[in-house]
Design goal:
mainly alpha, 5-stranded mixed β-sheet, two-stranded antiparallel ribbon, 54% helix, binds zinc ion
Length: 707
Amino acid sequence: MVKPTIILACIGLLLFSCSKKPEERPLETVVANPFFEEWETPFGVPPFEQIKEEHYMPTFHEGMKHQKLEIEAIVNNSDPPTFENTAEALDRTGDLLTKVKNVFNNLTSAHTNTELQKIEAEVKPLLAKHNDDINLNENLFRRIKAVYNQRETLNLNPEQSMLLEKTYKEFVRGGANLSEEKKARFREINEELSVLSVKFDKNVLDETNAFELVIEKEEDLAGLPQSVIAAASEAAKERGYEGKWVITLHKPSFIPFLQYSKKRNLREKVFKAFANLCNNDNEFDNKKIISRIAALRTERAQLLGHKTHADFILEENMAKNADEVYAFLEQIWKPALAKAKEEARELQAMIHKEGTDFKLQPWDWWFYAEKVKKAKYDLDDTTLRPYFKLENVRQGAFEVANKLWGITFHELEDMPKYHDDVKVLEVRDADGFHIGILYVDYFPRASKQGGAWMNAYRKQSHRNGKDIRPVIVNVGNFTKPTADTPSLISFDHALTLFHEFGHALHGLLSDCTYEKLSGTDVPRDFVELPSQIMENWASAPEVIKSYARHYETGEPIPDELLEKIKKSSHFNQGFGTVEYLASSFLDMDWHTLAEATEVDCTEFEITAMEKIGLIPEIIPRWRSTYFGHIFAGGYSSGYYSYIWAEVLDSDAFEAFKETSLFDKETAQSFRENILERGGTEDPMTLYLRFRGAKPKIEPLLKKRGLL
Ligand SMILES: [Zn+2]
């Protein structure tokens, strides 16, 4: 996933320095607050060690104040509005705010604490209001509109045209055309939504951290591989249960537990705790928050003249409306559900074969899937993990990028960091040119949200003849090393690492003028193309062989195991596709509500799942109460994007298969037409330029064994 930066107007970072106008802010902040200084760190990365909690609020206030002054200057310009003095000028406001937001938003996801959570709750509504103040500034909109109306005669290049169009649309979508009365309501909605999404996220994090399954008796470890036991023992130590074992609701902890624990009652306990996150009618419950968010989103969409929130969101995407998304999902749902039912029968047969006769339940799926896999393909996760040492997988990803584009990665010591687990790398082009900085932060901790993502501390842009190079981060929740074993990750997590690295490349290789259009600032259903295409290399036999080496012997993964991976690649795809699609339908259902009234969350989800005929042995990958992508992140009406982009990435990867996996010309075309271009042109235009034809769905269905 990509963490979206929801910013109206942001560009560049270091060019504007508040120190030029010290008289505009309180004296004590001049000396002490690093956000008010030029960063003298290597490559201008954030000076994490110097940034303290107390620096954020004054900077947010000052940043907002400053952007207001900059906007006033645009509005009060006595010259007639032009592209340069209005659209471009607006794009170059708010540097200080961007500077603080980039650090703050990254840390509240990757390394938060109660103090940051408090600031977040305080600042999000202020930022929402600030954003509305800009979008609803009539005089500013009048100027933008004037430029927009003359766009045909302005001789703009494609990037400038896109900036103008995007800016104009943002104003319209931000309520600029509304009556005074409706504007007031629009503002109220945005403020309330910003409060609700922060609360939602906080509840998920807090309830995740509140759960622990403490195992006291050794017999309750039955079935668990040594690595899982060791990790559980470390987790126990961290939580003050020396000599015991703890399973948490972080995926690297509970998924292996579900795969291997022979204790069915404990599997049920852990599974239910996860499946009911924030659905326990306690202080962390998200049900009312969700109903309220959905109702407010519908109301806001309708204020803007759309029928539903999905219509409002999708007009900006490659898929243009809800019908198109539903039709697309249906196409995959039918074969996927049929496959999942077949898989359920196989798992049930395995249960019977073992002489037991209970009915397969969701907390059994992982466990018996592992057994069937072992029986059918003689393959299990524990045999594979020793070949997937985290550092080797990471190196494998770097080598793919090196072979495709000649870029190289150089680890830097003594760089500012926000946590000891973080590593910092400089990325250089084939000719030595400094491309950017990549932070990697791979291990779970209580201060981090679940999942994996890419984000930016500084985005690429060109300004005043200067090429501002990006600072990108990849965050994950992979298996932590223990006292005597390095981090050995699952093959799935190896794919995730490559995936996030693909997003990172999109951010790093960006070559755009405006920050607003650079890197991963592209339509939601296009953004997963650069990430997912990397997964194809991760699983290509010739690539795997180079990075999957036994962590003790250094032996490359044997052909026999590779053959097994290949043979089993369709295994459990019915389950994976169904649990994913179920969440996609759920997302679409929440956002196609035509009435702005609060509905009962539990009932709603039941109805949504009945409608598609989801089988009781599978639950959606994310149930509503912890579906952060859509209720706290930027994926509302957009969770379908992953599989939409899989159509693109499967089709795009065919271009390499048709030539060779490391074909220089194809790689260069992918770089120039996709990775460097950000959101400067319509995604389908970019895609056609690379591929010469529209993407076909067949390579995806084939890849998942659904054809
Ligand atoms: Zn992604």
